[in-house]
Amino acid sequence: MRDWPLWEVFVRSRRGLSHVHAGSLHAPDAEMALRNARDLYTRRQEGVSLWVVRSSDIEASTPDERDSFFDPAADKIYRHPTFYDVPEGVEHL
Amino acid sequence: MYGNDFSAPGEAPGEAPRPRPATADEPVSFAAVIADDGRVEPRDEMPEGYRRTLVRQIAQHAHSEIIGMQPEGNWISRAPSLRRKAILMAKVQDEAGHGLYLYAAAETLGADRADLLDQLHSGRQKYSSIFNYPTLTWADVGAIGWLVDGAAIVNQVPLCRCSYGPYARAMVRVCKEESFHQRQGFEILHTLSHGTAEQKAMAQDAVDRYWWPSLMMFGPPDDDSPNSAQSMAWGIKRFSNDDLRQRFVDMTVPQAEALGLTLPDPEIRWNEERGHYDFGDIDFTELFEVIKGNGPCNAQRLAHRVKAHDDGAWVREAASAYAAKQSARSEGAA
């Protein structure tokens, strides 16, 4: 168990919704990870589809660089519809 | 179920963090998140004391969930009907699941599940004192669901807003499942208390034995709870031990009346002025004795846990061997 990899579990709660991260678990291989994920995260019909991904395969942005990494979006408020003035009475815009 | 995160006075607090002032040496980003009542996520900077406090608390909580399978598991083979048996199996399976959610949350802090289990097995980390009491009759299964899980819910609902994201999210899942646990316990006691005189007496006896230990699950009184202030400052804990205990009493007294059972405390009465129920003094020397290892079932619970772990070694080894074989085969085919 000590050397079993960690897997991240993603659950699609119903058709039409995307998979959402539910938690993690240890398992020796992908098949056991899926079975364990079913028993652990869908005991009450929480899902219709499961993904398991090795945690080590996930590349993540670093929290320290959060500000500089996401900064470029901060000064482009013209990307939001609320940036624009709409004359009184104009509808469906 | 619930893990108590406290030690007996004078006892070496094994993995306890050194108390430290709330504001010293905290990373600026961490202090800002806490001040804003935000959530700390796994890879954020955080003070070492915060990390260690959480690992200890989450591990004790996880250990409590899996040790908590034993007192109830004791009655699976003797449940009075197939319906009760199926329910009890589902509940005990939930407890295993709760343990796993929590071990996974602890691992996001850099702890290793196998290490945490080692620390449980060697007695360096603790689990809730409540599970060191025996389940002598079927009614005890009802009392555990109603009182022990009821106390756990009161403790755990505020933890859903804990400042550490993965712990809070695990608690949301746990709380959803606990309400079934509490209701099934209440139902067992309700059935017994409306049955024969003997059945009612059995229910009353279980409540008599589990009432005080359930109140102790909330920990020592506030004046005597040294780590509480720091945990509150960090947003790990939201309410004091005594506040949570009072909430539990207020919730439970009317339920006992509905059951037609008596809580074994002659001092329980409504206090109009306070807007709460008064209740008698708790004998905390018993709690501390149980925490120190002198409860009725401490040795038995741990021995059973270690045996189950050792007996299961071949399953873990077989799973590893199978995974290695499959992986070798697929490499050979490629």
UniProtKB/TrEMBL annotation, chain A:
Name of this chain's protein: 1,2-phenylacetyl-CoA epoxidase subunit PaaB
NCBIfam families: PA_CoA_Oxy2 (TIGR02157)
Gene3D superfamilies for this protein: Phenylacetic acid degradation B (3.10.20.520)
Pfam families (alphabetical): PaaB (PF06243)
InterPro entries per UniProt: PaaB, PaaB_sf
Source lineage: Bacteria, Bacillati, Actinomycetota, Actinomycetes, Propionibacteriales
Top-rank taxon: Bacteria
TrEMBL record, chain B:
The protein's name in its UniProt record: 1,2-phenylacetyl-CoA epoxidase subunit PaaA
Lineage top rank: taxon: Bacteria
Region (Disordered): 1-26
